[in-house]
Amino acid sequence: MPVRRDTVLAATIGAALTAILLAGASLPSAADRAAPRPKDTGAQHLGDPDYGVCRGTNPACYHDWGNFDPAADGYRVLVYSRTAGPRHAHLGPALPAGLNPPLTPAHAAQSALVELGAEHGFAVDWTEDVTQLSSPSRLFRYNAVIFMSTTRDALDDPAQTALRQYVRGGGGFVGIHNAFGTEYNWEWYEGLLGGANYYDHGRNQPGTVVTGSRRDASTAGLPARWDFADEWYNLVPFPSDVRVLARVDEATLPDGAEGGSGHPGHGRDHPVSWCQYYDGGRSWVTTLGHAVEAWTDAPMAGDQQFMAHVLGGIESAMGRAPFCR
């Protein structure tokens, strides 16, 4: 008797499905299917990594587990600026152990963030002591943790575990400038940065920042274009499944975007700030903030816009303002 084609087709499909299941493949979750995908901008998005967590711009990826009570506790952030490699001038000399060690005028970035909190009604602690990040219970005192130009292996194993548990419990993360040059070999942290990492940069030079949608707390009130000076980080991998908030117009860079290690730049799509929900928490990051003048009262084009951008990022990451709009 001849074998029916539909019988052969059904058997073939069944065998294929069995092979997929045996290989350990899994279907995307409902949250993953619902999460919007970014517009494809070409080859730089090929091979986007999968960090095995719920991530993207869908609030369903956030864990609202009641770990924070601003009505009773107010808002508080922790600034972490430990360096295990090159140290940016805006951080000043290395800080001694403990929480809230004395700051000097040389500690420009830390001092600016402390002043920002005082002006806008949230408390700021600061440290470069990794033991202050050693347990989730310590971190859950803070509505957001700010990595301020940290460098290379800035966390030990207990601190890595605590940061991951904190974010999974609904914590806020803010990464500024060389937070992208940190924990290179930890995939979960790379995902926290939006699936991106620092590769290289050209010289510090002026350029024009192009503001994205001004619905977000970190872009509300910013002009559509504003001048600034920075190192304009080139990124590998390139951020994925994020909402880009600001870009640099590479055509405005006098020396171009090519980096010291040969990266050609990102052309018309060179993001400098973005946000995402990640593994239960909120993540707002920016590659900007290199110049000391950006953190002080010294005159610099775009410094007021930059600080307003950072303020909105902090307030949204800690849940005080709507996040990632």
UniProtKB/TrEMBL annotation:
<dbReference type="InterPro" id="IPR029062">
    <property type="entry name" value="Class_I_gatase-like"/>
</dbReference>
<protein>
    <submittedName>
        <fullName>Glycosyl hydrolase</fullName>
    </submittedName>
</protein>
<dbReference type="Pfam" id="PF06283">
    <property type="entry name" value="ThuA"/>
</dbReference>
<feature type="region of interest" description="Disordered">
    <location>
        <begin position="31"/>
        <end position="50"/>
    </location>
</feature>
<feature type="signal peptide">
    <location>
        <begin position="1"/>
        <end position="30"/>
    </location>
</feature>
<feature type="domain" description="ThuA-like">
    <location>
        <begin position="105"/>
        <end position="315"/>
    </location>
</feature>
<dbReference type="GO" id="GO:0016787">
    <property type="term" value="F:hydrolase activity"/>
</dbReference>
<dbReference type="InterPro" id="IPR029010">
    <property type="entry name" value="ThuA-like"/>
</dbReference>
<keyword id="KW-0378">Hydrolase</keyword>
<keyword id="KW-0732">Signal</keyword>
